Amino acid sequence: MKPDRVVFNALIAACAKSGAVDRAFDVLAEMAGETQPIDPDHVTIGALLKACTKAGQVLFLRSPITLFIVLYYGSI
């Protein structure tokens, strides 16, 4: 059984809860690296934002915000 977006989002949310920012972004990369890539959604972005803010890694916030803009608007 292959993980779907819900499973990946749950993993990212768990990383956020524990403050594991690097692992959260690793999970995001795993989503993209699937045989059939899984696009992040608003839940994914929210979990990444939570991970960054909980860990006090404000500079990391640029990545999910940029990702969100590109996903929904096509470019920055």
Describe this structure in words.
68% of the residues lie in helices and 0% in strands. By secondary structure, it is mainly alpha-helical. It has one domain (5-73). It is globular, with a radius of gyration of 12 Å. The termini are far apart. The model has no long low-confidence stretch (mean pLDDT 81).
Helix fraction bin: 55-70%
Overall residue-averaged pLDDT value: 81
Order of helices and strands: HHHH
Radius of gyration, whole Å: 12 Å
Category by helix and strand content: mainly alpha
Number of separate helices:
4
What is the terminal-to-terminal distance?
36 Å
Largest sheet: none
Query: What share of the residues does DSSP label as strand, in percent?
Result: under 5%
Number of domain units: 1
Global geometry: globular
Uncertain spans, ≥5 residues at pLDDT below 50?
Answer: none
Q: What is the tally of beta strands?
A: 0
